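ASSEMBLY PREDICTION REQUEST
Request ID: AP-0331
Submitted by: J.K., bench scientist
Number of chains: two
Total residues: 559
Priority: normal
Notes: Please return the full assembly, not individual chains.
Input sequences:
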Amino acid sequence: MLRLTRGARVALGAVVGVVLVFMYVPLMLVIVNSFNAARIPSWPIEEFSLRWWEAAFANEALWTAVGNSVIVGLGAMVIALLLGTLSAFALQRFDFFGKQTVNLLIVLPIALPGVVTGVAFSNTYNNVLEPIGIQLGYFGMIVAHATFCIVMVFNNVFARLRRMSPSMQEASMDLGASLWQTFRLVTFPQFRTAFVAGALLAFALSFDELVVTIFTAPAGVDTLPLWIFNQMSRPNEATQVNVIATVLILLSFIPVYVSQRLTRAEEDER
Amino acid sequence: MTSTATKPVSTMLYRSRRLRLGSLLTLPLVWLVGLYIASLALLLATAFWRVDPFTSKVTPAFQFDAFEQLLSNQAYLSTSLRTLGIALTVTLVSAAFAIPLGIYMAKIASPWMRGFLAVAITLPLWAGYLVKILAMRVTFTEEGFFNSFFGVFGISGPGFSQTTVVLTLTYLWFPYMALPVYTAIRQIPVNLFDASADLGARGWTTIRTVVMPLLAPALIAGSVFTFSLSLGDYIAAELVGGRTQMIGSVIANNINLNPPVAAAFALVPIAFVVLYLLGTRRTGALERM
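STATUS: Completed
Returned structure:
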């Protein structure tokens, strides 16, 4: 046992209290401020009202931005699932020259600052592809997002593959199943939860991404973070931002719940 | 051999290891090298290009003007140092709070409390990047909660300043430090604590001589996130930093006006992150992440 004096326990408890207050009071302020009738966030709140909630739900630009974010997130997720799973299998099942380098390549897009990645892609789109007549437009944004989402799928699938025994697949192949049958019936069910977790993380990462989007979004197209950012840059019009932020805070319970369920499912499988 | 005839693809792949590896790696490599690395290389090449002073168009060349501008301008140097300082402060503050939090969660809290705190730390990770910056804005704005609440005691908040940038970045990346530190403390075998106590060590001595050395890998792993994420950020500086400029701000502001300078300056965070990763790699902490 760790022997701590009463004073030390109280001190540690106090630090935990400070951390929780620091983490949650600002989020609560956002929620409360979404009901603030005033134009500028202020404290104490003098008059409560639902006017910004009504305005936000009637705001078509906001809904379009949400739609764009969902499309980009799903597109990036699908590409990341494909590329992340392929590379996880390659790096987990094979030893080859340059393996470390490939690993680094997968991590690099998320390790480097978003502004570098964003600027690099926009430079290629505007100065290389456009002059030769290739307009990526909307798809360019998906391509950039997918690139830094690969690592999420890769990490999850790779970690699971490491714990899986290859003998089941060998048995399947020995019994005459094709590669595809083996993958579909034997291999995939074993790493399905990791696959889903990777997909969820990739989507969430893309849905939340701002900096890369700033540089790769085609003119006039807003994703949700881009819309929020533009509103926040004009402080006097940021009223509806509190509303959408409140919704996002409430939505963040879903992935936490799902990840708890996934961990439990994983423990059952073992 | 009927299977050879009916499953030609499977058989062919089964026989050739190289073909199997190739079919797995081709797509990811085409994407990552052909698109991403090529884009990065092209951006860095732009650093050596020439801006036409009249049309302000960029043309391929091989000159060091952009680098000379960076080195001769005092503002770029101070921005780099300021950003480095902010990233290091965020890392230190995060560690200073993550360690006591981790000790409390792993060693003092009841199982229920432990589960509650684990969720409480993870939840804000999902709440969204801009949501958290907005939360800091609402807290520290002129008429906001902090000034009104602490104003009673005669304390006025940092407003929108470099301090608020540090607080905001800590707010954003703290869970990335707290979670590995907590996991590491939980993984320390219980009998080490017993042995330490049996040998007469008090709590603080055990923490200093047993826990802290075993925490090093987790602290390094966490610091990779807090450091590199803070280093590359410029949105926090723009939204809560007042007039604070970070490396990212300079890159973002110059990319249209003076692409070579933006490209050359992009090398600075890349260099910092790579140096930091190489430094931590020597400790072997990354393999255990």
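REVIEWER COMMENTS: Residues 66-288 of chain B form a domain with the MetI-like fold fold (CATH 1.10.3720.10).
SIGN-OFF: pending second reviewer
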